Amino acid sequence: MRSYDQYCAAAKALDVVGDRWTLLIVRELLIRQPCRYTDLQYGLPGIATNLLADRLRQLEEHGVITREVAPPPVATTVFRLTPRGEALQPVLAALGEWGVPLLQEGSDQAVFRSHWLALPLGHLRDHAPEHPPVTIEVRTADQPMLVRTVDGKVVVEPGTDPRADATITGSPPVVLELFLGGVDLETAQAQGLVLEGDAAAVARIAPHPDFDTAT
Amino acid sequence: MRSYDQYCAAAKALDVVGDRWTLLIVRELLIRQPCRYTDLQYGLPGIATNLLADRLRQLEEHGVITREVAPPPVATTVFRLTPRGEALQPVLAALGEWGVPLLQEGSDQAVFRSHWLALPLGHLRDHAPEHPPVTIEVRTADQPMLVRTVDGKVVVEPGTDPRADATITGSPPVVLELFLGGVDLETAQAQGLVLEGDAAAVARIAPHPDFDTAT
DNA sequence: CAGCATCCGCTTTGATACTG
DNA sequence: CAGTATCAAAGCGGATGCTG
User: Is B42 on the interface with A (CB under 8 A)?
Assistant: First the structure.
């Protein structure tokens, strides 16, 4: 990207991460830290392979990511954020928060990847951290995800758990509306979300229902 | 901009503000709210006039800014952020914070506009709000700026004040280093910064000197 | 003069094909 | 798997011209 040549911190930041796709690459790495080239391609549907290669090179030059050639057993390259790259998390968080209202319009033909749930759900809190941790399996797109409470926080990872406290199945819009606070559980169910198991587990992490550990 | 077509809040946000120049236009409007077309051009050195017009149209369509045709006495168009547009402030703040380390390298031929001081200085706090407010005149680029304490916060506006508690003169790098906490006042002076008046006034707002109201 | 629109050369991006 | 190569299309930058 051609520099803005402005002595302004925001402009300098955009000189580095203002290119098309760049911040989305950082998003992928924030979600699933050690990442192979093909993992990135999968998490960035629509990116051209030459652009991905270009951007990775630029990010490496700017000290945002590192490229590690793994030893023979795996024999692959893994990309990782440097501390400087992880410091971009607040930027992605701010952008994500601002973009939430835009999810409602035109859910048309937009692609969704289950692991993207980690970004908005990572900001949720366990409303009853003194209770035993809960696990919720969320089935909404390419792969099932496990949403678990850990030390009052919420972690998201791919996987299945037959002993999960609850299992949620639904389209990405309904699932996200539930976890972003747009609707309560009943409304989500009326809109096609299917819940199996303990509704209280969902209430533990869903936003501002004031009946925390009810049921 | 072509949409990323991803059902992800951050990607949707970038669909709207991810274009080149777009976030810098928002920066300008965050700093000096009602803005004319030519004011924007001045605050965005290097932008092509057709791009500015394009971006303003897109931002208007997306509900980020409004265009008001002022009544005959002034006979000009003024651009303003909507509440939705002002909600982008955290995005610019996060970008700016991340970009601070980039200011040190290549201060080469980068352009500077004094009113940009408002962004980083707006995050400073008055360390002694119980004392009477202070005013500092900062002369560093195209126009003198007044930095004043108001209710524990710091406001920045263009202007001159012969009765300012202190006057600071210096290049943008030295002035910013001082106010961003890179160096203390003595070091800044050794690097060419000229202070006239009360050093304590500067200490009131400069970051983490633990001698707050000293002298 | 303020607020654009048009034109044109250059750069970036997107899509696909191909390679160590 | 991790890219490079190629090429058409879109976007950008700079200059200039037009209109109230």
Answer: no
